[in-house]
Each structure stands twice: as structure tokens, then as C-alpha cells.
């Protein structure tokens, strides 16, 4: 897909599709408004979501040091500036809670994870394929979803805020978790957006 085609795809976004992209971009550090008009910061967030956070462990549903290290990389998108040492302390959790405000977390940014933090983490895990309840109890399936988000969706391009074929291919891979069954061709259509929107439907009601 050419840059011109990519620009045309972006220009053709409906308001609802733009908001869906911005909500998913929050997993990559986007902190702007959900106004349905994706700009460079939205695309940088989407690119980071696709690239992941350096998780190198297994998708086993059992959070260990590699999971916590990658979660700290996610926390950095919420302002965490400490080391990636795999030891989650209050500063790490504050960063995670800040990111999770885009996924339904409305509690205090206090660095103390409770049921509300866990429920929002389950909403994030949905991007990684978790389809269980949002009950605030993270089991193996919740953690597998989180680990998948932390691993990324195969984006190999730069975090430059410009949507190109690799960005769209990563988004199509994410959309597969919401039922998208089309090709991974980097050319988004209604089915790509429908798959992405399906990942966030429950979070609008929970």
C-alpha cells in the first residue's frame, strides 16, 4: 500500500472507527482525546501496541519476571520512570493504572492494584484474545491475553506516527481476535474495523 493509499484509508475513517483506533492506541501510550480523528500520536500508540513491550516469555498464563518486566514497559507509557526489573511496586502500578484509564479504569492512581485495576487489565487482555468475564479475577486466560498484548502483533516498522502497510497489518492481526477473517494485506476495510470494535464492545458496558 502506498503512502497515498494509506492517507486515503485514514481520511475515510468514520468517527466511530477513529474512536475505536484511539481506544486501542491507549495500550501503546496514546493519551489524547477520543475524538475520532487519529493524528500522529494515535498512530504512534497503535504502532506501539502492535510492536509490543519486549515480552520474551511463554504465553502460559502464569505471570513471572518476564511478564512483569514487559508490564513495566507498558507502565512507562503511563509515566513510570523506574527500572524494568520485573518487580512491580507502587510506581509501576501507577503507570499501569494510568494506561488502564483508557480501558475502563476509573479508580485512583494510587499504585495499589485492586479489583478495578484487574478488571481493566482484563479489558486490555481482550486485545490479546481474552474473552472471559470482566470479574477482576485474573486467571491463566486473562494473563495469556495480557502476555499476548505485551508480545505485540507483529509490527516491525518504526514508531513514527505515520500509518503504513505494517501498521495496518498489525491492526488486522489484532482484529483477528475480534473475528476478522480477511487477509493480512495492510489494506483496512469495514471488516478490519468491525473486528477491532468487537474487542472493545464489552468494555463499554462493564
Task: Write structural notes for this entry.
The chain has helices at 3-11, 15-25, 40-51, 65-76, 90-100, 115-127, 140-151, 165-176, 190-200. It is built from nine helices and no strands. α3 (40-51) packs across α8 (165-176). Residues 1-8 have low confidence and may be disordered. The chain is an all-alpha fold and 206 residues long. The chain has one domain (3-204).
Core attributes:
0% strand, globular
Task: Determine Rg (CA atoms, Å).
Answer: 16 Å
Percentage of residues in helical conformation: 40-55%
Number of strands: 0
Report mean pLDDT, rounded to a whole number: 88
Strand content: under 5%
Give a brief rundown of this model.
50% of the residues lie in helices and 0% in strands. With 206 residues, it is mostly helical.
